[in-house]
Design goal:
By secondary structure, the protein is an alpha+beta fold. It is built from one helix and five strands. The protein has a five-stranded antiparallel sheet, covered by helices on one side.
């Protein structure tokens, strides 16, 4: 009987993040990232419990941007919605719009 060589299975890549949820809990700041195509990535932000909400949102956004850059080699923008509750925030994640570099034919000037 011939045995096949075992191959290490590579974990399937998550889709590009599309929604972020940030929650303030008594234990600390928690986040959930929902990628395109389903699934969910949850965790705790490594920041102090008494961190201001705007700093926690910035830390969560940085985590999403880093995830998109590392796993998908793409840039994303995180836009926070007004909070429905004082301890809960939701953000939409969109692909970053890249400005087109100036054409070398125009010497760096744009046509008007």
């Amino acid at each position: 009987m011939v045995r096949r060589k075992k191959e290490k299975r590579k974990r399937p890549a998550r889709g590009i993040p599309k929604v972020v949820v940030l929650l303030a809990t008594p234990e600390g700041w928690r986040f959930s990232i929902i990628p395109a195509g389903g699934g969910m990535l949850c965790g705790r932000l490594d920041i102090p419990i008494n961190t201001a909400p705007e700093d926690a949102r910035a830390a969560a956004a940085a985590k999403v941007v880093e995830l998109a850059r590392d796993e998908h080699e793409t840039e994303v923008e995180v836009t926070w919605d007004p909070p429905p509750e004082p301890w809960s925030w939701t953000a939409r994640v969109t692909l970053a719009t890249m400005k087109e570099p100036p054409s070398p034919d125009t010497g760096g000037q744009t046509a008007s």
